[in-house]
Amino acid sequence: VYERLHPAGPPVSAAQMLAEARLGEGAPEGRPYLFANFVTTVDGRATLGGNTRGLGGPADLEMLLELRGVADAVLVGSGTVRVEGYGRLVNDADRRARRAAAGLAPDPAAVVISRGLDLPWDAGLFAAPDQPVIVYTGSAAGAPEVAAPVEIVRLADCTAVAALTDLRRRGVRALLCEGGPRLFRALLGDGLVDELFLTLAPLLTADPGERGLLPGPSLPEPAKLTLTWALSAGPELFLRYVVANAADRIASTSE
Ligand SMILES: NC(=O)c1ccc[n+]([C@@H]2O[C@H](COP(=O)([O-])OP(=O)(O)OC[C@H]3O[C@@H](n4cnc5c(N)ncnc54)[C@H](OP(=O)(O)O)[C@@H]3O)[C@@H](O)[C@H]2O)c1
Fold this sequence. Notes:
β1 and β2 form a beta hairpin. The chain has seven helices and eleven strands. The protein has about 260 residues and is α/β, with parallel strands linked by helices. It has an eleven-stranded mixed sheet, covered by helices on one side. α1 (about 15-20) packs parallel to α2 (about 60-70). It is globular, with a radius of gyration of 17 Å. NADP nicotinamide-adenine-dinucleotide phosphate binds near residues 113 and 181.
């Protein structure tokens, strides 16, 4: 249960808040509606000891799983798959049943964009036989046999825009991006991020060795955020922001 700080209201579940958010309805013509989810320290570090395990508590995990619950597909960076491993995205049968009842596929596709196809093929994501995976790549390299049903989509110009255009053609309207920071920076630079769900973990590390939420280069101008809601659960804050003028951001600033 999450306390509603802004706008104020009675306590609520993540499932209820996200069902009411109807994220897919905001999808423009040519791409899905893209909402990113991160957990960071209060000083903006997206890792602790090189990964996310020590950052988020149970309420953060619950929010992440419920975000997956409303997504048609889940975009995740290859660096994140390498570190976090992953597995079947919606592992809980009740959650899959709720998705099916809402008219969604029981398992959202996992989506990876990898220009070089240098992927951690031994990661849990590729070992899950029930987890559909779509890999967009600009490489002609082969891919090994893995347990997960993986579709390799070769793009002449392997950009996030091209991948998102193809996803929309496949009917993906609500696209959750779980990072990591480098992919997020590129998507933001390309004007493709509509919302940011940010969990603030009650920590400060000032550790320059940990990855920040947005590794450089700097944005040409600050991306303006509008706070849609603020929730709390125990010591964690859950902030939902709309990213202004996503479509206008300059493509040339991406990595
Ligand atoms: N706190 C959180 O919520 C959170 C969330 C996720 C991850 N993390 C942490 O972040 C770390 C991993 O993140 P990361 O930033 O290193 O990697 P990442 O963003 O997960 O993945 C980066 C990879 O994405 C691919 N990519 C595709 N298109 C790209 C583009 N336009 N620009 C840049 N990259 C593009 C690149 O592979 P190709 O060169 O093959 O294209 C690149 O190597 C891990 O330590 C993980 O634990 C934290």
